[in-house]
Amino acid sequence: MAETTAASGRTPDSTRRSERSRRAIFDAALALVGEVGFARTTVEGIAARAGVGKQTIYRWWPSKAAVLLDAYLDLAAGAAEDGEAALPDTGDLAADLRTVLRATVDELNDPRYEAPTRALTAEGVVDPVLGARFVERLLEPQLELYARRLRAAQDAGDVRPDVDPRVALELFVGPLTHRWLLRTRPLTHAYADELVGYALHGIAARP
Amino acid sequence: MAETTAASGRTPDSTRRSERSRRAIFDAALALVGEVGFARTTVEGIAARAGVGKQTIYRWWPSKAAVLLDAYLDLAAGAAEDGEAALPDTGDLAADLRTVLRATVDELNDPRYEAPTRALTAEGVVDPVLGARFVERLLEPQLELYARRLRAAQDAGDVRPDVDPRVALELFVGPLTHRWLLRTRPLTHAYADELVGYALHGIAARP
Amino acid sequence: MAETTAASGRTPDSTRRSERSRRAIFDAALALVGEVGFARTTVEGIAARAGVGKQTIYRWWPSKAAVLLDAYLDLAAGAAEDGEAALPDTGDLAADLRTVLRATVDELNDPRYEAPTRALTAEGVVDPVLGARFVERLLEPQLELYARRLRAAQDAGDVRPDVDPRVALELFVGPLTHRWLLRTRPLTHAYADELVGYALHGIAARP
Amino acid sequence: MAETTAASGRTPDSTRRSERSRRAIFDAALALVGEVGFARTTVEGIAARAGVGKQTIYRWWPSKAAVLLDAYLDLAAGAAEDGEAALPDTGDLAADLRTVLRATVDELNDPRYEAPTRALTAEGVVDPVLGARFVERLLEPQLELYARRLRAAQDAGDVRPDVDPRVALELFVGPLTHRWLLRTRPLTHAYADELVGYALHGIAARP
DNA sequence: CGGTAATCGAGACGGTACGTCGTGTCTTGAG
DNA sequence: CTCAAGACACGACGTACCGTCTCGATTACCG
Predict the structure, then answer these.
(1) Assuming Cys at both sites, which of A4, A48, B131, D129 could form a disulfide with A66, CB separation 3.0 to 4.6 Å?
(2) Which tens digit of pLDDT belongs to each residue from D160-171?
(3) What does pTM read for this prediction?
(4) DSSP strand E in B36-150: where?
């Protein structure tokens, strides 16, 4: 589980690292963010809760956001092990997209994940380094699944061959993310379905 | 220009308020966020730079984010005075959308606005109250312009009548925002054009 | 009660200073040094005990030693108010010196004063600035009393007129201090008497 | 050269000890105290400079003061080898004392020795165990030289037979130390001479 | 048109957290 | 076993800001 290595003067020897502390820090960080939110979570608080010296956190991470990101990645890695290396492919692209987008809606609405995900995303919006890492490790792998499914659909003749899947997928995740991040309108299954319809067939009138 | 009024015990008498200080605070806030970023901008710093007592800030705003939001709204109000109460309507919907989206791309890429816009958006992602205000005062009015243009296109028979403009517009702004906030891919005019094409006509193959 | 003004960037406005805090800090500092010793007394501890922010200490003093010195001076000033502006002068120089030196022995042996006095002295040995202040405010005024008494004795013909009182007085306080600081031998009344005997006949006029 | 043995649970096997490390630690300790002072010298710093593990220091000494003391004793032992097992005895007590006291003044004023000597003395003032060791190993042997010379003077009839040499010697070293430690007045040869004059006639036999 | 009640600049205050440094203990691998 | 190296839990450092709280000194309404 690679970490956002601290950029300070001397690099510590990672072979001698305490796995026990690493785990305790992750657990404490996630728990605290869930309980009091990211803003009121402090490095000091994480250290205290993890039964760890502050220095042990600063030795391995440059900021509390980096800690949380690694904790989150660790969590996601655990969850990813058992499952979903690919989007469903029943042959019906619209149905498959509806399934996935509905699942995404449910996940985004799940209060357990909301706080840390929002915190991390917001931090990434403002901190390019952290954001890049967030995208590279978490977001892009997910988007790649969409791209793959769309490519399969192209092979099956369900999607225009001149369409760039990497761009097309944003028609689905872009609006969803927009609603969720900015809270402009409620995120519902109905919205997911509507989105699939619009994006798949466009909004222009047919002659 | 209404402020996010401080919610503390006694409401101050706004008629006696110093306009001079208000302006100085806005200027200082925007300047500091531009120079050192939102995170390293402090209320103390704003006060010092504005030549103002800290209490004068705390009297009128509940947080530095609220100050920045009002400063930003003030800025936007000034900019909005001269112009764009509506999206262009040349009769060619695709062309008009390309124009607008390209302009948006340019704006988002403008380093002058980047820091404060990102800061406010990120803050809104995490703080629902601030986010709501941000959306209500800044985002929704802009989205309404899209909705209006799409409704006109429906009247002209260029957009399917069963399409909900408020949802459809997210096909354009959603992906754009997604790229900008998360920095997944560069934001270019070519992308804006591609997006208009995809969203307008869908990605599904035609039989 | 002048303080060892902090040498940091901006000098605080001493007219707005909280007398309440000043007193609480002195009390806490003296209490802690008495209870756990100087080395294990911390600025943090003083602040906590005094119910004061750390910054309030750092605003007015550059180090814990400076705090303790001022606390000590404040104490001494309080004690000095009621009393001893001069050494006793019964006409019998030897007896008077014995009285004073015995009292000094008792004071140095008093466990209540021992810890802070040793701490302060040791700190002054190593920190010239603090030491100078210690000497100027506490030690020299006391030594001046000796000098005055010796001058009176010269006037009375009990001390050789060519003797420099400021040097002569060190024959008494030097050895006493030496024993106390370095703990070479026990400090007793007998020693005080012996010292007076030895030193006095060196400077006493011969008939 | 005996060390202030660490008092921890298991005593290490001193026969397997690295002489190389011991010397390196002494050198590093003395160098650091000379360069940055005792307070800012750290065990970690000594270890790093000596190219030694921290544990190697903690294995053999209980504190940095103890390390410095041993380093100092080691130094003094080297210096003592070539010389002065006794005070000069030309038959003229006053002259001999002046010689010795002037040499002491020079030594105390030597900036090379000032930092470590002050540091050790100050530490001994506050730490009775260390102080006792300092006195026993360094101070008392020197004082004994004075006592011996005074006894010789008594035998020669130059000093009153009822005088206790161990007390009398403090008339010389006490005031000198007082001036040096507390920096009340400059330490000069003239002062040394004056001191001898004052003190000596106090203890000299009367014709 | 002077009294008075507010806001204003300034900044001290009690706090919380920061990120760093040093302590003394413990562990690892080499000799 | 000792040693160099250094990670660890811990505690304190001195600093930066927080949001609250006095302080005069304007300043603008009101009687």
Answers:
(1) A4
(2) 888 899 999 999
(3) 0.88
(4) none
